[in-house]
Structures are given as structure tokens and as C-alpha cells.
Design brief:
By secondary structure, this protein is mostly beta strands. It contains no helices and nine strands.
Length: 122
Amino acid sequence: MKRVSFALAALALSGCATASPEPERVASGETLTTEFLAGKTSRTPGGVFRWATDGTFAGELASGEPISGTWSVEEGRFCRTIAAPERISGSECQTAVINTDGTLTVENSRGARVTSVIEDPI
């Protein structure tokens, strides 16, 4: 499966921190757009997420629990609203960096980083 240079997801739900040097950036801030994620699937240790072109997302957490909500890019930040499951519902805009190695690193407001791999749709 072809990797795409935007890994998100997403979501700062769960992820892996890396001790290795950070990869080269493809986009961040003002150069970050929805085209890097729309229609793609992201995978983290915390789950699999499918990012629709209409601004919705759905997937499955590592526990098998379904997750869904909406997403956008606003003023150079990745924004998401988790609708379900209710226990992790809420909205947040996060700093996001698209890397040349096919990953996306997202940092939430508490400083926690999540790295995910973005793939073409399954």
C-alpha cells in the first residue's frame, strides 16, 4: 500500500513517541491542507481511522470500539471533534506536521505527541 505524506490522526488518542531524529517536514502550519488526509486511512497503536473527503471520520480503536466524528484543517492546525465513544468525546485543534517518511505527528494542547502512518484507502 502506498504511503502518503500525511499521518494524523490523528487524534492524539494513543501513539508512539520516537527517540530517533525527527523526519523532514512536508507540511505544517500554513502549508497544512485537507488534501493530505482526505480519503486516507491512518494507523496508530491506538486504532485505525478513515478520513472522508466530506470532513467526517470513522474507525476502530485498538480495543475494537468504534470511533467517529468530524475533522478539518483550520488556520494551519488539525481540528477534530470526536462524537463517539462518548467517554473520549470532545473537540480540539492540534499542531500537526506531515513528514516525508509517510507519518503525521500531532501534538495536543497538553503536549502529548502521537505519530501515525497514513495510507491510501483500503
